[in-house]
Structure formats: C-alpha cells, structure tokens
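hey can u check if this looks right to u? its 193 residues, i copy pasted from the old doc so theres a chance i mangled smth
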Amino acid sequence: MKLIDLGLYSGTLWADCNLGSTEENLIGDFYRFGDKTPFKATSCKYKVGITERLGISTTPYDVVKHTLGGNFRMPTREDVVEIAGFCKIKWEEINCYGGYRLTGPNGNSIFFPVIDPEGFEALMWPNGERYKGVQGRYWTSLLSPRNFAFSLMFTKDSKIPVWYMRYERDYGALIRPVADRSWYHCLEANTRM
C-alpha cells in the first residue's frame, strides 16, 4: 500500500488501494462500522457499543489504525468532503473492474472501485436483500444518531457520482486508509537512514 499526495490543502495522504487489497482496482474487505474483522454477509445484525461522539478515527474502534498501525487512520468527514470537492472525478475501468478515478489539484490520482452487486454475493443487506445499482460505499469515521454512520458513496447510476451520506452501521462497506503528511515525511526520513 502506497500513500498518494493529491495536493489537497489539508495535506492528507490517501492510500492507493482499499483496506484488505493490494491493487487499486480490487475491492478489498468489507467492514461493519467500528468492527475490526472483515464482514461476511449474514442475516443477523451486529452491534458495536460505540460511544465516541466525535467519531472513531484513531480510537480503538478504528480498523485502519488497528490493522496498519502508525499514523494510518480512517478518513474523517473533513477528509471526504475535501476529496469530493477538490478532485476531478471520472468513471474508468481497469482490467474489467469499474470505478472512479479521483485526480487531485497536483495531477496525482487514486482509483475507488465500485461493484455490480449482481455478481458479488457479499453485497447484501443483513435481511438478505440485494443492493440496487452499481455503487461503492466507503466508511468515514463519523457517527450519526440511531445506529448510522457517514459514508462516501460512489454510484454510476446517478448524475452526481459521489455522495456523502448516512449508512447503517450494521451493513458492510469498504475503507480507504489515509495518513497525515507530517507523519509520512518522518517515516520516509527514518527509512532512508
């Protein structure tokens, strides 16, 4: 996994692939919000006793921090609003996998794969119903009342390809790790010694 500088004002670096993947065009693992183990489609609901009011980034519920360590973390609301607002977004296919290429102000880019749920068994609601439409949902670290959390959703079936919206915490979604620029430069300097 590499960190990509998109030239964003915050300096946040975005991973080049999803958590659980080693290539940009592959989906990776699905997670329920606040769970540290990959999600498998079942008919039962899962509850996490999360009480953090400001979100779970860098807390014990942050699966990115738990899995990758260092200063890696789940993206915050501010991170996803920034990437959606300041990057050019274009549909692309890589080796038959569709998704959106987000290109930052500096010309660097990352790919967010989305899927066709007809061909992917794991994309089911806990009650067994299938998703409708081609989409990819990515967790942010921000909680919302009534068992919801906020997600970044990409969809091919809409005039607006990217949405920031609530999503039930019990359902599986993808996660794209981020890191802060200051930590990454310290890591680079230490590996050169």
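Confidence is low (pLDDT under 50) at residues 41-47, 117-133, 185-193.
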